[in-house]
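yo

u said u wanted the structure for the complex thing, so here. seqs first:
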Amino acid sequence: GQSLEQPSEVTAVEGAIVQINCTYQTSGFYGLSWYQQHDGGAPTFLSYNALDGLEETGRFSSFLSRSDSYGYLLLQELQMKDSASYFCAVRPVQDSTLTFGKGTMLLVSP
Amino acid sequence: GAGVSQSPSNKVTEKGKDVELRCDPISGHTALYWYRQSLGQGLEFLIYFQGNSAPDKSGLPSDRFSAERTGGSVSTLTIQRTQQEDSAVYLCASSLNPGPLPNQPQHFGDGTRLSIL
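structre next:
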């Protein structure tokens, strides 16, 4: 089976950098994805790491290390609008579906 | 529209009633997923459709839950004899055929907020 662990909540101030970690136990998967969900809204796709290393998309970067069973989402130059829940997810090799972590609520304060 | 559309956006019903939730995926997306999200929780997978068939129904919590998809497009999730623990947001997502391509992002609708009194 698959299990993904994330911190339940992270707080930071505007302009800062924050890292949201995701550790996992899975028998095999294609890659690690990240989704953002604002309160009451639809989850939206942010990034995907198929290989180990860092993927950068504007202010957001995502990292994967398969040897450490670990990944993270890095948000730079935080803005108030970044306050949301962030979910890591994997697609197991035997499935066509995603398994999601329980999500990390990011609170950005002025 | 260009996105995934779900209806109704909110549904309040009495315990024991049946409810039907609808999902209209993005045109051309062959894969469709239903999830359930309780307050402050993650996304609980319910069922996956590839075209009109459901190769993975493993997440349906009981036989009161069923889903169908017709014409490779619209899907309905039906909950019979609703219970209070069924109260949650039901999210639908669609994607291109995940097949051999491991990264096909899922596009989510805004969900149906279901409240059972």
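The two ends of chain A are 41 Å apart (CA to CA). The interface with chain B takes residues 30-31, 33, 41-45, 48, 50, 87, 91, 95-103, 105 of chain A (CB under 8 Å).
cya
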